[in-house]
Model the fold of this input.
Amino acid sequence: MTNNKTLDVAIVGGGPAGLNAALVLAQARRSVTVIDAGQPRNELATHLRGFLTRDGTVPTDLLAMGREEAERFGVTFTEGSVTKASAIAGGFELALADGESLVARRLLVATGISDTFPDIEGFADRWAKDVLHCPYCHGYEVRDQPLGVIAETAFFGVHQALMVRQWTDDVVLFTHTDDAIEPGDREKLDARDIRIVSGKVTGLEVENDELTGVRLADGTVTPRRAVFVGGAITPVPRDQTLRDLGAETNDTPFGPFAAVDATGATSVPGVWAAGNVVDPKAQVVISASAGYQAAVAINMDLIEADVEAAVAARRAR
Ligand SMILES: Cc1cc2nc3c(=O)[nH]c(=O)nc-3n(C[C@H](O)[C@H](O)[C@H](O)COP(=O)(O)OP(=O)(O)OC[C@H]3O[C@@H](n4cnc5c(N)ncnc54)[C@H](O)[C@@H]3O)c2cc1C
Done:
């Protein structure tokens, strides 16, 4: 869709962050388009938790409802990927994978993250079923069951094991790639009856489409019904659009993520970012809320630009 008309706002990414921003901007009477590659982070999850009035919704249904709402206020959607962003006079030009392009005065990047998986046999197949990254999203479903925690650092493993213990009294912490648990942490795990199993995890045992155990390099299998792996995956921001434009990053425990202020403004004037692409911990409602905040700030920025132009035009007359 090569669009010669300059839009007020282009939003890259149609997940919760991008869609909520689109809705707010369209209701503020801005012309908005959302370009979306259709791969939201939670697309394999069967239900959504922790979002008031939407608890239990299939995540892709939530996005379909969000699109429909935004469309009612005039938001347009383009299926596809933005492959290149450039700053031009008065705004930004976005090139799409299909060779088309569009121009907008302001840009919101809400492209989320990719979760990269460790080299553990069966891990990807069980993702979002019984290989789980976050107890707030999945803990309730597996409460009171034999659960495991796999992490790449002792620090994260201890943290997540103590957390998962809230959902069951049968937790095993697999030390996997880092056996160096501090004595004080061992005392905490012991006090909460969390068992430590040392050795590298190499595979997951599955029967009848259910996780049954965790296998170590020496062949030992520890029976488990589900594992939490928040510390074994690496969130990688899908931030090429921001990098094209030279947005500054902050170093985080997960690697560099775009630096933004409380409204999502990046270091590049006219460019905002919201949701997982700047905060891998942000849940759906938090990402949607960040999209809202960015939309308000973008609208204000456009209002200021419009007022400035009007004053200049009046003075010139
Ligand atoms: C298995 C799983 C279960 C989860 N369960 C829950 C839960 O129960 N409750 C909860 O609150 N949170 C849950 N989450 C977290 C939730 O997925 C995130 O909070 C949410 O997806 C973040 O929204 P977002 O808009 O930032 O990014 P996303 O939802 O990932 O959306 C980003 C969109 O941008 C698109 N995109 C990326 N790059 C481009 C590009 N270059 N051009 C165009 N489009 C692009 C992507 O295809 C995608 O559609 C879960 C996560 C996982 C992995």
Q: What stands out?
A: The two ends are 38 Å apart (CA to CA). The first strand starts at residue 3 and ends at 12.
